[in-house]
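Hey, quick one: can you model this chain's 3D structure?
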Amino acid sequence: MFEKLAAHFRNSDINYPLLVPLLVSSFLIQMVTALVRVTISYRAVELGLSIIGLGFIACAFAIFPILIAVQVGRYIDRGHDARTTWVGSAIFLISIAGFAVWATPAGLLVFSAVMGLGHIMLMASQQMLCVRAAGPKSLEGVFGNFMVANSVGQGLGPYVVGWLGGNAHVPPTGQLFVVGAACSAVALAVSLMLRPSGETRAGKGQAEIVPVSQILRIPGLIAVIMAGVILVAASDTVIVYIPLLGAERHIDVHDIGLLLTVRAAASMTARLFYSRMVTAFGRWPLMTASTCVCGLSYAVFALPLPLWAMHIAIAMMGFSFGLATTLSITIVVDMTSVSARGTTNSLRIMSNRIGQFVMPFGAGLVAAAASVGGLFVALAVAIVAASGAMLFKRPQT
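Sure thing. Here's the predicted structure for all 397 residues.
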């Protein structure tokens, strides 16, 4: 059995020495991100912050990515994907440790911004490391595995919050921030196992720089990026406001953590079958359909559902979200030339952060005016509209 497994690794076009630590690092970063974002919401409740105040803290996560995304992408395009991961992991650790020692309103605001800086460096570089780890025939499989690792981490983070919180309405936030800092330290150690490619393109790369304006003229690219923006920003809003929905409907911390875990598990399941579903249906039809279904699942949460129905709706949300967000990455990578992939992917992530900057603030206003249920209706309308836009902007083949 071991000989067959070894033969499989030898004959595969996947770079496993690069892929394995990448998956472990990604899993840890996503777990800590999910854990900390939920914990920040509960810490805001402890501090008596308003919904609008929580929206400002959520917006801070997007400030630095908006400012430096293109520069990060250009740096990665010059062959510095692994180095970007090292630096991003160190910054991420600093931010989580900051939450553990300074969890005041000002501290939550400052370290959310610092965490956003580390996070964009990690996301942009890790996704380009996926491209480097994949061979000509394995891009879908590698990205599927990468997104599965993300889903496992995103599901485990809220589960840890629910496990430590138990039946309490507010979990032990200080303890949770310490757990996050410890896991971030492990993630930094693992990231140092990622080796540079040895192929820097500093000299000839200057001649190969593709202008951003030329990138944005690729047919269908903006429609896919905008759909991804709305999906990711809406998902980020769910993480922030599901705990408030639970408080509004008298659902305890354990059940809220379980709901978020079900959502992440459904996303992971979708990504396990991602490669086969792309083969069966094609990227664009699957992207359009999964985005539409995701939007409809948001609308369901505006209804006064029993807990079992909320589990069904959030599973549908997670499965469709898992497909659509993975497709938004692979479609962008496939549409772009090799010399501009890092920049284009960073533009995609920057756009996501703009959405994460604007939407939490807007979500706070909507939730304050129309309740959390009204917020879910607004998110549903935006996602379904993005699905419709992709139908009209799909490039002709």
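One thing worth noting: The chain has one domain: 19-196+212-393.
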